[in-house]
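Quarterly update from the structural biology core.
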Amino acid sequence: MRSNYKTLGPYIRELKNRNRNGAVSDLRGVSIGKGFMPSVANVNGTDLSKYKRVEQRQFAFNPMHVGRDEVLPIALLAQEGPVVVSPAYVVFEVLDHEQLLPEYLMMWCRRPEFDRNAWFTTDNSVRGGFSWRNFCDMELPIPSVEKQREIVKEYQTVVDRIRLNERLNEKLEEVAQAIYKQWFVDFEFPMTAEYAEAIGKPELAGQPYKSSGGEMEYNEFLEQEIPKRWTGAELGELVTTQYGYTASAVETPVGPKFLRITDISNDLIGWDTVPYCPIEEKTLEKYELHEGDVVIARTGATVGYAKRINKRHPQCVFASYLIRMRARDERYDQFIGLTVVSPRYRDYIKNVAVGSGQEQGNAPLLRGYRMIVPPPELMPQFSVLVRCLIDYEELAEVENATLRHLSKLHLAMLVKNEAGGRR
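Predicted structure, tokenized:
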């Protein structure tokens, strides 16, 4: 064993506290991104008293599939808790926080070298299991608790900024959706002089349409009243669709970035973590993503989840479980983008998705959404308004890419820092 490394086993203990009487109903899973996530399992009629409790500053990891995924899904519960996890998970805690900080241990578990070591020690089963004993036998440098606190504080400052940007983008998206609702659901869009003149109501310039007496008419296709001169259509009449490219992603920087379902499942696309696709030049044009495109997950628990492609994206293509939508008329880019990422559209997809094993949303289903179609002269005003919000979102994406790189440097420097910080 390296002189500055210590075996983890003496510092931790396994816990098998059951959820007595089913007192806790917050069931969580652990993602390969090393965080707790809401469970997608159907627990109707399930006896949760058999599940394991996890309290604040305790850990849980999924010992299965490590050999397959080459990652140990492990998470530290930072919130007050408690939550419950599958009986198959391993739950444990640090014995003495004055010897080993849980947050420091979690930093170590995020290092790529940790996952490689975990993968190397998996058993020969089909899934490639990883045992509690395997975990206890792992080694890490443990400096003084003062040094640990210093390391954790530096790292947490970066992580907190990333989360702040993510929360900011959630709010920006909420504002964009509120504007969308005001314009295209409540029909209270502010009329320009040109639009007011076009509908024969020049006196309504600058006023919200519906509440100012703007004319409404019943649309049989949509089965609702909409502003006069507006129409209804299926989404497929406004967009083209394309299934994603079937290939294996690679970490080596060969070819464009290769966007997958897992990459669009977070609030921000972390382009720095997106792998690459060695695609031939003659095929690239068919699958390349451009500003204004929307990619939609078409399978599994994330079916219907969508992301807009913004102007600061790297060259990229998209994987087979995604569908690309592209506006036939670029004036409608922002309108279609906000339509497709809206909760209303995702609810539609969840309702029409089919499949015996998991939900599937094919292109005809995704294109079948019935929607209002505003006149094109209204689009520039709307696009300018929401473009400001989208620009802020993009800046947050760029900053977070830099911050994630910085957090990786913090993790990479652990060994060097800790070697000089031992008691």
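Confidence is low (pLDDT under 50) at residues 418-423.
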